[in-house]
Specification:
Length: 233
Amino acid sequence: MKKVEIKINKIRISRAFSTVLSWSLGILLAVGSLNLLNHWAGTAADADADLLSGLHVMRGLDGFETIMEALFLVCEVLILDVLRRGFVRLSRFSLQLLVVVLMVFVALNGVASLWSSGVEVTEGANVVVSEFEGFRRNFVPLTAMVVYGAELALGGVLTVFYRGSLRLLGVALMVCPTLVLMLSGVYTYLYTEVGGLTLAELSTYYGLMRVASFVLSVLPFVLMRKAVEGAED
């Protein structure tokens, strides 16, 4: 059976929402870069703790970091909402639904990652966590898995049935999150299985992983901007 290709390569939205998209993307890139610089000096031990706690889990955030992470999350959701409105204009219900799922679970993941009840260390050096904290640590990876699945589904539809900028966005939605997971896995392997690496070397590898992961994480948002164009209301 011949594949049915929809001859649409860009999404048209109102000029107002096009402006919202541009500002949201600019703030997201700026905040993400600041966070990257802020964490650049993090130790390998911190890196390992972050990875074992689940995707995007932030530990011990101060007030500034919390505000930056919350602002980054708001910008993510705003960008996705503009994409959803574009699919509304195209009357693509399945794509609208996928973006809504993505928005909801990105928000849940981000809020749960920021909301930590902390840990308590006993005299025997055993780490004790509250019931809520235990739930949160399980909830964050689960929401991250749903986000990953929604990105793969949305990316697959855009890659197969659309063309141009939308097809490129679809490829990025499938490839970039997968590469981020692979980078995390490589670092975990280096930390747990490879002997002879010093803490300084592990910190360097973790810093490089964070830079690469940041670029891969924001690339789909940049391509979303390329795939959307403003039009008269």
